[in-house]
Structure formats: C-alpha cells, structure tokens
Amino acid sequence: MLHVALRLLALSAAVALCSARAQPIIGAIWLDQREVFDSTTTEWFFAAPLLNTLHTTTRPWVIGDELLFAVGDRLDTTLLYESERNLRRTGLFSRVAMHVDTVAPDTVEVTITTQDFWSTSGALLFGSGGGVATLGAELEEFNLAGTGSRLGASGIYRTENNIGWQGALGLTWRRALRSELTLAASLFANRVRTEQRLALLQPYRTLRSPLAWSLGVTNLYGSDFLYQPGSGRYELLPFHLRRASGWISIGTTDQDEDRLFATLLLSVEHVRRIAPEFRQAGDNSARVLLSLGSLRQRFRRMSGLDGYLVEDLASGAWGAATVGYFFPANPDGERFFYVGGEAEQSGFLAGNRLYLFGRISAGSGFEQGQARYTSIESEGLGHWRFSPLLVLVGRFWQQTVWNWTAFRQLVLDNDAGLRSYAVNQLIGDNRLLYNIELRAFPTWQWWIFRFSGVAFLDGGTVWRQGMQFDRVRFHHAVGVGVRLHILKWASDGGILRFDVAYNLDTRRIGFVFSSNQLFSAVRSHQFQLPTFFGSAIDTE
Description:
Elements: H1 2-22, E1 25-34, H2 48-54, H3 60-66, H4 77-89, E2 93-104, E3 107-116, E4 120-129, E5 132-141, E6 150-158, E7 164-173, E8 182-190, E9 193-202, E10 211-227, E11 234-251, E12 258-273, E13 285-302, E14 311-328, E15 336-349, E16 354-367, E17 370-387, E18 390-402, E19 410-412, E20 426-428, E21 430-440, E22 445-446, E23 449-463, E24 475-486, E25 495-503, E26 508-514
Parallel strand pairs: 1-3
Antiparallel strand pairs: 2-3, 4-5, 5-6, 6-7, 7-8, 8-9, 9-10, 10-11, 11-12, 12-13, 13-14, 14-15, 15-16, 16-17, 17-18, 18-21, 19-20, 21-23, 22-23, 23-24, 24-25, 25-26
C-alpha cells in the first residue's frame, strides 16, 4: 500500500509539473504599432507620409491599459483573446493581432500588432430620403492626441419640419487621468430643441470587472413634434425636462464568459408640458428599478457581413428580471409598482453559415391591482452566408402596448427603415417593421476603398391601440443599392450608402443617401440597465 501511495504521489507531482510547463511565463511584451498607412502594403501612396505625420499614433499606454496580462504572468490564451477584443472594441484600430513566440521551454514573448484608423473626420454631409434632406459639415477627432478620447462638432441644415440649422458638440474623455472613469458631455441645439447632458461613469470594461456605476444629469427644453397622420403637418408641444439619475451594478467574476449581475437604478425628474393630455409615461416621478441579469457570450472573428473589417461577433444569451416602484417627485407625478423582463438568444448553426438572434421584452405597471403601461417588444435577426461573397440578411421588429394612458407616438418612414416613404406621415401607437437584404461583397479593391451591393425588400405597418390587427395596412418598398467602404475609417463611419427604392404604394422611385448600413447582420449580447419598457417614443 505504501508503494502504491508513493507511486500516486509521484504521478501527481509529474502531472503538476507538466501542467506548470504547459503554462509558460510571459517574459516580455512587445508593441508593434503601425501608422495609418503602412509603407510595406499596397495602401501606400504619395501623400501617405504627410497624412501619417498629421495623425497622432495611439499612445502605448492606451494599449497597455486594455491588456489583461503582464510580464511575469503565466500565459493564459483566454486573457490574450479578450485583450485583443478589448483593443478592437475601442474603435481605434483597423488591425489588431497578437503573436506568441516561445523563446525558452518555460518562457514566451507576446507581440501586439496594431494599426491605427485615420481618426480625424472632417466632411461635408449630405443626406436625403423620404422627402427631406440634410446638408452640413462635421469635424470629429475620436483619438484625441492619441489618447482614445473623442471630441466632435457639427453644423447641419435640415429641411425636415423646417428645423433649419442645428449644431452639436460632444466630448468623451475615456479613462480620465488613466483611471477606469469616463467623462461624457454633450450639447445639441436647433430652433425647436436644446439638449444638455453630463455623465461620469465606470463601465464594465472586461469580463472580470466586478463593479460598474454612473451618475448623470440631463436638461432638455424646447418642443416635441405632434404629427398629423398622412398630412405631413405637425404641432409643436413645448416642454422642459430636468433629470438626475444614477446606477450601480455588481457582477460575478468567477465564471469567465458566463456572468450574473445585480443592478440598482435611481432616477428623479421634473417636467413641464404644454397640457396634461401630452403627459408622457413616468413624467414627474422618481423611480427605483432593481434587476437581476445573466449574460453568456462566446466570441468569434468574422468579416463580410456589414463590411470588410474584422469584427468580434458574440453569440450567447442575455436575460434579466426587473422590479420597481414609481412615486411622485411633485404633485403631477405618478405612483405604481412595475415588473418587467427581457430575454435574448443567438447562435451560429450549419457550420457558421446560419446565424439567428431573437429578443423579447415585456413590462407592466400596476396601480391598485390595475395594469398600466403594459408593453411587449420583440426582435428577430438572422443571416445565411451562401459564400464569403454573398449573404442574405433579415430583421423583424415589433412594438405593442396596452393600457397606455399617456402620450405615445411611433413613426414608420424612411428614417425608421421603410425606404422611400415620406417622413413623419405614418403614425401609430404600435409598430411592426421587417427588412430583407441580399448583400454582395466582391473581392475587388481600389486603394483603401471597397464596394458592396445590395438588393432589398422593406415592409411594415403602424396602428393605434384597440385597432384589430387584421385591419391594419402594410406598406412595402423594393430596390437596390451600393455601399462605399472606406477601410481606413472607423467602422461606425466608414460606409457611404446609396439606395434606389421603389415605393409600392405611390409607384414612385426614391433615393436614399446615408453614412451607415440600415441595420447590422448581427447583434452582440451586452449588459443592459433596468428599463421602463415601451417608454421610448418618436418626438422628432
């Protein structure tokens, strides 16, 4: 027996030694930072040196702050992959790669290769669709002095509702003073509306962040638009809203890609409106919302769905249950209990050729046993990859309410996703929308530009509460389009879209210009704050 025990101890020691050897120590971390235009590739051209000089390369410490490993740590590929995703998620880089070199039996070195996006966006803006147009200019720097912070300003002339000129100014100070905190401030103004927002937050930055929180204030004043269905006319509804809010969330850190969250949100507001009949749900009420949520994520790298850049796509699930209480912040406030929930699920099937995403959320308030502000919303999204060059994408979106006694307005038009339809004329309390696109991604590239094409079908309807669904009228548009992809520009601004849409109601052709895809072919599951479901409405 003693002999057997000694053999078992020796075997255990050998297994432990092999396990230690299987996890070598990181002996060095090297940064290989490439400029926007790389002289070793075909993107190089005569003005590239000047443009590289005008751009401030991302500071090394910005990259270092996103790394979840350090010199002297045992090699953990899970942490390497997450660090790579974190760097891509910053939106600062057109390329991120990590390479591990074995330099000794128990030592490795990690080389991190990054290539910056061109981060200064200065452009003339022109857009049209649905009978309205915009013309103006914007200037934004989303990697200010190489620190990853954003500073932007814009001035745009809008024909919609005779709004005229509007301006916006925004600052996002990311990782302020090398901390986990982010400071965000914004100002927006036109002739009918002014918005001022300020927030200090510590977000969930990694899969192991134990705590996140935020404090913010909002000041909105001016007028909302009340649209007259089918006429294109509107009324102005003056208002003034002041709101202070904050939330704190605690997340588990021991399950890697599967996490649990407990979140508490507090908010109080004061609102003045032109008349009681235009009161919105929750006006002049303080709210306390508590949610318990669960998040599961599995990541994979892919391109050729929305554009040509490599994306980190998350499949998995998110779910949360919310309970809350609304009580008057002044004599015009409301008092009721609230319960709600949401669930998401997604996954890749058929050898990653098929992707499906589904989401449903529902909630209701209760006052003296009577339901108030009951809502249900569902979304569906999917794509089928016929080949790396061809993908069929579709989405479905539905919003329905009952017992909604406050002002509510949903719009179905070109801006919402029904291309070529006049803006602000199809109005209801409930909305249903679906889009189908066949996207083609040819391999041809000219310098830093690539092109893709699309054929599409849009459809949808809106209707009032109490109206039978079999009596609603559906509206449709079909068409084709072209997208210009700018590979040196960040993914959220690197697409110019031109669509030609045929309105099946009016039998007329409309043209749409925009600077993004109408919708993405995938949805990532993310931590969500407790929500008063159904309270978001269209007021502009």
